[in-house]
Specification:
- It is built from 3 helices and 9 strands; from the N terminus they run E-H-E-H-E-E-E-H-E-E-E-E.
- It is of the alpha/beta class.
- The strands form 2 sheets. The protein has a 6-stranded mixed beta sheet.
- It is globular, with a radius of gyration of 16 Å.
- Helix 1 packs across helix 2 (44-51).
- Helix 3 (103-113) links the parallel strand 5 (91-99) and strand 6 (119-127).
- Bound molecules: guanosine-5'-monophosphate and magnesium ion (MG).
Amino acid sequence: MHVIDPPLVSAAAIQARIGELAFEIEADFGGSPLALVCVLKGGLFFAADLLRQLSMPVSLDFIRAQSYAGRHSKGTVEVSLWPSIPLHGEAVLIVEDILDTGRTTDALMTRLRELRPARLALCTLLDKPSRRIFPIKADYVGFTIPDRFVVGYGLDCDERYRNLPAIHALEPD
Ligand code: 5GP
Ligand code: MG
């Protein structure tokens, strides 16, 4: 496997876009408190950078889920970490690395809704709409990308490449 250069999205472009997203989020939510829920592990750097651009009071929590596609079924989503802060009545923003088929995020949003937040919004750094199976649409999208497997800025391939500062396509040698 090798990382393709130049990156699909540069480190500077990521930071500039995060500034714009923060501006949009602040405009939509006003100055009211926001509970940010980062989806691990891929959303780690995005959540950390977005959080620092938001000026309203924010709390931070984490969620971790893995999706297993069954042979016939829609697949099951196993949650291995759940927010510890009560989200009932809160304005909640889920922060994701990438929206692909939408399976994982769809399941997470369904389960988070059961906690009865006042508002539940979704922010994803990357969106691959051509791959979507589950009818899910993010409220905030950093970059819409083609159907390529990408790594960097939190996104991995077998736990490698998360530390790259930019987003790169990955291709077999
Ligand atoms: P879903 O199909 O449920 O929308 O996506 C599930 C997960 O697959 C994402 O959260 C992400 O971890 C992984 N994924 C999907 N597309 C990519 C990609 O292009 N690169 C990497 N590193 N992970 C991806
Ligand atoms: Mg992954």
